[in-house]
Design brief:
Length: 352
């Protein structure tokens, strides 16, 4: 389903809603001179606070944001289908592995912006400027506090050791988060070691992979497994929940940042790139630069309890309780580059 919040659609007959997204039907667009004061943003994010942010961008620059929110794959298909009649200027999606898919389909163009290059750490952006990380997401460990002492935890690697037999939960390797984790592993440790690790991990699973990251956290709380690998913002989301059930889940679990004594904990991104043939390339760059301002970084990151990508911007209050940690500094573009091998390794290891 496509949710369109662009102001343009408010001026359009309902039947033209779909077309409105494609072409715009405000008289603004048809007026000479005004036609460039627009940027079409295709986003896989769905947070109400994003709209407030885009309104602020419009206020500051006079550039209207036409927002199209949809699922990642649908956005990529749509951009492909626009072909010779390109509409999209900016693609926003989560996980460097998904940005790589856009890159592979040649849907993005290289951008050389001093602002983006200076503000976004080098390891969180594509080496050729095809996309830029805007927020960080950490794939961490959660453990059952009644069964595991944090001193028993150390690294992702250790979860493949015999001590963890029948105690580990993780979602399917079909999921891009795990493919990217494997991609980072390949980059740091090589394919052979990664495959050994994946096999050891699978051998230690408490149950066949099922559900998403939240389900793994719940399984840990329920004692179905002792430790799980999950993205940090799901823990933060449960911790913020008003539901007594979720509070009970969070009471049972502790969080742990693995690999603090070597390469650091695996970090992924939410990011954005300028679409190849973007009709409003300059506006697209201005929009992306705006998202690196301290105010925008805060709002953008806090919407999903992620960590701001720009150094010096404080993390959301909800994340302070987890403390500081050492993050892996491998370039996140490696995750996509290594994705084909990562999925093969997962298959060979029997990671469903
Ligand atoms: Fe997620």
């Amino acid at each position: 389903m496509v949710r369109d919040f662009s102001k343009a659609s408010l001026f359009c007959p309902l039947s033209l809603l779909f077309l409105a997204v494609m072409s715009g039907c405000t008289n603004q667009d048809s007026q000479q001179g005004d036609q460039d004061k627009v940027v079409s943003v295709y986003s896989a994010r769905h947070y109400d606070t994003d709209q407030a942010l885009y309104d602020d961008f419009t206020k500051q620059t006079g550039i209207e944001v036409k927002l199209l929110e949809s699922k990642d794959n649908e956005l990529l298909e749509r951009i492909k289908n626009e072909g010779n009649n390109p509409q999209a200027d900016v693609l926003i999606t989560v996980d460097a592995g998904r940005l790589w898919r856009a890159e592979q389909s040649k849907l993005l163009q290289p951008i050389n912006s001093d602002t983006l290059n200076q503000k976004i750490p080098e390891n969180l952006r594509h080496p050729d400027g095809l996309w830029f990380g805007l927020t960080k997401r950490v794939r961490m460990l959660v453990y059952n506090k009644a069964k595991v002492k944090p001193t028993e935890l150390s690294t992702y690697e250790a979860l493949a050791e015999p001590a963890w037999k029948g105690r580990v939960c993780v979602r399917s390797s079909n999921n891009i988060y795990n493919q990217s984790l494997l991609g980072s592993f390949i980059e740091s440790k090589g394919e052979g070691t990664t495959e050994e690790w994946a096999k050891g991990l699978v051998a230690n699973l408490a149950r066949p992979p099922k559900g998403g990251d939240v389900d793994q956290i719940k399984a840990v709380a329920a004692g179905q497994c002792d430790v799980a690998i999950v993205n940090h913002y799901y823990v933060a989301r449960l911790a913020q929940s008003e539901s007594a059930k979720n509070k009970a889940v969070i009471d049972q679990v502790g969080v742990f940042f693995p690999n603090q004594k070597d390469r650091g904990t695996h970090v992924n991104i939410s990011g954005a790139g300028v679409v190849a043939n973007a009709p409003h390339k300059e506006n697209a760059i201005a929009f992306m630069e705006y998202l690196t301002s301290p105010e925008a970084q805060k709002v953008f990151a806090e919407a999903n309890n992620e960590y701001p990508a720009v150094i010096g911007v404080e993390a959301a209050p909800a994340l302070k309780q987890y403390g500081e940690f050492k993050a892996d500094t491998v370039n996140v573009s490696a995750y996509g580059r290594n994705n084909p091998e990562a999925t093969k390794i997962a298959d060979r290891a029997g990671w469903q």
